[in-house]
Description:
The chain is α+β, with helices and mostly antiparallel strands and 119 residues long. It has helices spanning 2-17, 38-42, 79-86, and strands at 28-30, 33-37, 50-55, 60-65, 71-76, 92-98, 104-111. The chain is built from three helices and seven strands; from the N terminus they run αββαβββαββ. Residues 1-14 have low confidence and may be disordered.
Amino acid sequence: MKKSIxxxxxxxxxxxxxxxxxxxxxxYFSGNSFQGSFGSIRNSADTIQYLYCQRRSTSxxxxxxxxxxxxxxxxxxxxxxLDLLDSLGNSSHLYVNYNTSGTCTTMFHAIGSVYEPMK
Length: 119
């Protein structure tokens, strides 16, 4: 019973920490990864940055270009990655890690009220 009360209390406190929070996430590169939020990128003042993925029947490619014009691309045929790409929405935040061969190795996305929707 004490564990249940603690878990519920923790959820209530953690949930309050993000109440009304808004994150702006333009295209960002770090090592062999790129990430960004679709809404923040689409709504940005510049016309340079983008983040998109093209899904084909058994493969996909993802491209990212930051506001400085640098770009990254990777390709995947992982069924898990393809499923993830199918679930993206216009306020998704996408994170992609890739290897030196240009193969996407890790993908995950987040969606929630903290991420700016496309206008």
